[in-house]
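Async update (no meeting this week)

Hi team, since we skipped the sync, here's where things stand on the single-chain job. The sequence we agreed to prioritize is pasted below, unchanged from the tracker. I ran it this morning and attached the output directly underneath so nobody has to dig for it. Comments welcome in thread, and please keep replies under the output.
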Amino acid sequence: MPYACYGVAIEWDYYPFILLTPRYVLLALVSGQFAEGNNVVGWRNLTVAARIAYPLCCVGVVLIHMGVVLLSAARRGPPRHELW
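Output:
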């Protein structure tokens, strides 16, 4: 992510969550199929995997964002406080 304003940074963080949406719609459909077929073991495995994957994706987005911010700050160097 290039050096940009706060709004652009939030927009870049928004894209991974938009990409997660179709996965969780698909997850709901498959979960419904497991429930209709009385496949309790498959349903449980699917829900556990989803409960692990979503927080990991959220943490990943935060870590990538913070890494980009820190690398960007390191490249620019310390802030200069010029009066004029």
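Quick observations from my side:
Helices lie at 6-36, 40-76.
DSSP finds two helices and no strands in the chain.
Reply here if anything looks off.
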